[in-house]
UniProtKB/TrEMBL annotation, chain A:
<dbReference type="Pfam" id="PF00528">
    <property type="entry name" value="BPD_transp_1"/>
</dbReference>
<dbReference type="InterPro" id="IPR000515">
    <property type="entry name" value="MetI-like"/>
</dbReference>
<keyword id="KW-1133">Transmembrane helix</keyword>
<feature type="domain" description="ABC transmembrane type-1">
    <location>
        <begin position="108"/>
        <end position="320"/>
    </location>
</feature>
<protein>
    <submittedName>
        <fullName>Sugar ABC transporter permease</fullName>
    </submittedName>
</protein>
<dbReference type="GO" id="GO:0055085">
    <property type="term" value="P:transmembrane transport"/>
</dbReference>
<keyword id="KW-0813">Transport</keyword>
<feature type="transmembrane region" description="Helical">
    <location>
        <begin position="50"/>
        <end position="71"/>
    </location>
</feature>
<feature type="compositionally biased region" description="Basic and acidic residues">
    <location>
        <begin position="28"/>
        <end position="39"/>
    </location>
</feature>
TrEMBL record, chain B:
<dbReference type="InterPro" id="IPR035906">
    <property type="entry name" value="MetI-like_sf"/>
</dbReference>
<feature type="transmembrane region" description="Helical">
    <location>
        <begin position="128"/>
        <end position="152"/>
    </location>
</feature>
<keyword id="KW-0812">Transmembrane</keyword>
<keyword id="KW-0813">Transport</keyword>
<keyword id="KW-1133">Transmembrane helix</keyword>
<feature type="transmembrane region" description="Helical">
    <location>
        <begin position="39"/>
        <end position="61"/>
    </location>
</feature>
<feature type="transmembrane region" description="Helical">
    <location>
        <begin position="94"/>
        <end position="116"/>
    </location>
</feature>
<feature type="transmembrane region" description="Helical">
    <location>
        <begin position="215"/>
        <end position="237"/>
    </location>
</feature>
<protein>
    <submittedName>
        <fullName>Carbohydrate ABC transporter permease</fullName>
    </submittedName>
</protein>
Length: 330, 297
């Protein structure tokens, strides 16, 4: 990972999140606007016709893969159907049933913990490693690349390896615990321990992403600021909290938003390691929605769960998004 | 790899002298010691972090418990191709992924161009719509799509799978392309317009030709999403010979006794393409990677 491309990647991630999509850079936009006026007179009619055709495939796909399903999901959520029939209109009954079922709240609680640990756990590990790799270390670049591997390797592969390591009492890691006289922990069979294991797995998968985001942000920090601060007698900790953290605040909030979305929407990390068990201890909302639809064949409640999840996600994203706006104003 | 990772930190100083001969004199004794402490620390962390990946490779290359071979062997890998449909799964994964990459770029590049150059309300509204759609969990749309595709005969079908992959990559892919086109000066196009080029002509001949890095990042993103996907595959694929690699790997776990050598051999095959792409194109990876994660793998 070369540090020269990383900031531009970050810049694009920022752009992607800017209101109204890409092209949010103000200087860029002003430039284009001025040029825009020149060409408008000559090319306007031809341009808009061409733009229409260029956009058409994308619009068709958006309607087919996103618009129509969303519309249909709205119908399903308010009907008592299954995968074959739409069923009868039941209004908000599915939502009421879902909201009054203990399984939903249990899954919501797990999703919340999974997300909190996933976001902040991977952020802390990523921050620590990014700071460590920023100092002069022999072969530092090699480590930086090797540490990205957990995130490059497909989840199906890494979950298989984790399964081999922890699944049964005779697996490698429980055996090590036993030989150390620490008992035989049932990493995937004990409800609490299984939840912890899934969260650690998620942090293992996600920290490289955080490390990359933070490294990119740190690379753009001017090091002379630190020299000035230490001349003024600021301690290491003060430098960290007063200089480093504020300077990476923006990319931190962006990475938190993204990671929140990944964690809440995550299916394979959980499903492949535990299948949602034992006794539903690691059933997140996505896993619950999947099971409700494809194992219990109750599409209405399943889609209702997905909708409730989406709404929560939108609220959390908006809150964090405001934080970004605030931090970029400062 | 493991030999390097387990090298004892004390055996290091020679390397330090070799690589940092110039700066060594400047650093104080304590600074040098600090560097080697940090080296030892990062070495230990990396070794622990990579345990699952090393385990996968080691198990794939060591003989199965019932085998008579000793030492490292490729018999697990050849065996998995003989005993299972691994070759078909690999082929299915390659076809779906390549088709997704090509179609995604073909759809996202023109749309991204419009988002980058267009200034009307409709265009910025469309851009916002893409953002909203992308943050919706895929599980919401998977259920209605399953019903729709079942009616069209696209369930348990690689084309159906590809359509969904293209649909789910296109939101982020379009932004990525748009963000790249933003960095290409419009004066290039204006010059070509003066030469009598149409808007489409200047897009395809001038803009697209200068956008290789943007195209590659988008392609990497689409590649990762399609290659790694499990949720769509588990919903839409039913029969063994239509499975993609993730489903193939998972099919090993349905028997009571897991054939670990076989599954790890297939796992190694599955993780090689992303690692190769990562190694070859890591310059473009950060951008593609961020997009890739956006999809919520």
């Amino acid at each position: 990972m070369s540090s020269t491309t990383a900031p531009s990647g970050l810049a694009r991630a920022r752009k992607g999140l800017a209101p109204g999509g890409p092209g949010g850079g103000s200087r860029n936009r002003k430039d284009l606007n001025r040029k825009d006026l020149n060409r408008k007179s000559k090319l306007s009619a031809q341009t808009s016709r061409t733009f229409f055709w260029l956009l058409l495939p994308s619009v068709i796909l958006l309607v087919l893969i996103h618009g129509y399903p969303l519309f249909h999901a709205g119908i399903q959520a308010t009907h008592d159907g299954n995968l074959i029939e739409t069923g009868n209109f039941v209004g908000v009954e599915n939502f009421a049933n879902v909201l009054s079922s203990p399984a939903f709240w249990k899954a919501a609680q797990f999703t919340l913990w999974f997300t909190i640990v996933g976001v902040f756990g991977s952020w802390l590990v990523g921050l620590g490693l990014a700071l460590l790799l920023r100092t002069k270390i022999p072969a530092g670049g090699t480590f930086k690349v090797l540490l990205l591997l957990p995130w490059v390797v497909p989840i199906v592969v890494s979950s298989t390896a984790w399964n081999w390591l922890v699944a049964t009492p005779d697996s490698l890691i429980p055996s090590i615990f036993r030989n150390l006289g620490l008992g035989t922990p049932l990493f995937l069979a004990d409800p609490t321990l299984a939840a912890v294991t899934v969260m650690i797995f998620k942090v293992w998968v996600s920290f490289p992403f955080m490390m990359m985001m933070i490294s990119a942000a740190l690379a753009s920090v001017d090091t002379t600021v630190y020299e000035a601060a230490s001349m003024d007698g600021a301690s290491r900790w003060q430098q960290f909290t007063q200089i480093t953290l504020p300077l990476i605040a923006r990319s931190t909030y962006i990475s938190w938003i993204l990671m929140t979305i990944f964690c809440v929407n995550d299916f394979p990390t959980i499903y492949l390691l535990t299948g949602g068990g034992p006794v539903d201890a690691t059933t997140s909302l996505v896993v619950l929605a999947y099971r409700t639809v494809f194992q219990d064949f109750a599409t209405g409640p399943g889609v209702a769960i997905a909708f409730l999840m989406t709404m929560t996600l939108v609220v959390v994203s908006v809150i964090l998004y405001r934080q970004i706006r605030k931090s970029s104003v400062e | 790899m493991s030999a390097v990772l387990h090298a004892h930190p004390e055996s290091g100083p020679a390397l330090g002298v070799a690589t940092t001969g110039k700066t060594r004199r400047v650093l104080s004794e304590a600074g040098m010691r600090g560097r080697w402490w940090r080296f030892a620390l990062i070495l230990a962390i990396t070794a622990i972090v990579l345990v699952p990946i090393m385990v996968t490779v080691i198990l794939a290359l060591t003989p199965a418990p019932n085998s008579t071979t000793t030492g490292l062997t490729l018999e697990n890998i050849t065996g998995v191709f003989e005993r299972t449909l691994a070759a078909t799964w690999l082929q299915n994964s390659l076809i779906t992924t390549l088709a997704t990459v090509v179609v995604s770029v073909a759809v996202a590049a023109p749309a991204g161009y419009v988002l980058s150059r267009g200034r009307s309300k409709a265009v910025s509204g469309y851009s916002l719509l893409l953002f909203v759609m992308q943050s919706l969990p895929i599980i919401t749309s998977v259920v209605p799509l399953f019903i729709l595709f079942a009616a069209m005969g696209l369930v348990d079908n690689l084309m159906g799978l590809t359509i969904i992959y293209v649909g789910s990559t296109m939101t982020v892919a379009t932004w990525m392309m748009a963000a790249y086109f933003d960095s290409i000066p419009i004066s290039l196009e204006e010059a070509s317009w003066i030469d009598g080029c149409s808007v489409f002509g200047s897009f395809s001949k001038v803009v697209l030709r200068n956008s290789l890095p943007g195209v590659l990042s988008t392609a990497i993103f689409a590649f990762l999403l399609a290659w790694n996907d499990y949720l769509v595959a588990i919903v839409f694929l039913r029969s063994n010979e239509i499975f993609t690699l993730p489903m193939g790997v998972q099919s090993f776990f349905q028997q009571n006794l897991t054939d670990w050598s076989g599954v790890m051999a297939l796992a190694v095959i599955m993780m090689l393409p992303p690692i190769i792409v990562f190694a070859a194109l890591n310059k473009y990876f950060s951008v593609g990677g961020i997009g890739g994660s956006l999809a919520g793998r």
